[in-house]
Amino acid sequence: MAHILVIGASQGIGLETVKAALAAGHRVRAFARSAGRIELSDPDLERFPGDALSATDVGAALEGIDVVVQALGVPFRDLFGPVRLFSDATNVLVPAIEQAGVRRLIAVTGFGTGDSRAAIGPLQRLPFRLVFGRAYDDKDAQEMRIRRSGLDWTFVRPGVLTGGPATGRYQVLDRPSSWTNGLIARADVARFIVRDLESRDHVGRPVVLISHALPL
């Protein structure tokens, strides 16, 4: 069983990953500024309050860790101003991981990041750019920084996120020719992350995750 650091663990995909990893028998260090308020009870869970932009906090959180899952998010209201969290946090994380001797990093970015941007359908392109453009420009920088590292990385690019329980019925699109947007539950994204950190099937590759495709 792995000792997993989840960065951005207090909500969204990060919190679902904490739950899924614990259910699979892993030890989890849940890192977030509000980590102390995570309402889970498990002897293998360690709540680790910290700031993803603090090299001191991140360095301390990496001690004894086997795998890092970076699952940061920003509030919807912040999408309409400058977004730097993803790249700034990654610029802190990557050298800290390298110094700690950790090899494996799974980074949650999103469909439309990097080379998947070309797969956005014409009906989705303008609204995507208007709402998510600033954030995804920053996610591009996030992915580029990770690619320049020597880490065993995987980019997880989910489509449009939904709530609810995991269904187990989702597609892992690992070829650029198959990439398309769609809906997927956060809990299913988390299940994939835990499965992939165990199998290492997608080291050095980006994957798009969807359950139901959206009209192009």
UniProtKB/TrEMBL annotation:
Gene3D superfamilies: NAD(P)-binding Rossmann-like Domain
InterPro entries: NAD(P)-bd_dom, NAD(P)-bd_dom_sf
Residue intervals of the NAD(P)-binding domain: 8-197
Superkingdom of origin organism: Bacteria
Pfam families named among the record's database cross-references: NAD_binding_10
PANTHER family assigned to the protein according to its UniProt record, in alphabetical order: FLAVIN REDUCTASE-RELATED, UPF0659 PROTEIN YMR090W
Entry protein name: Epimerase
Source species: Methylobacterium platani JCM 14648
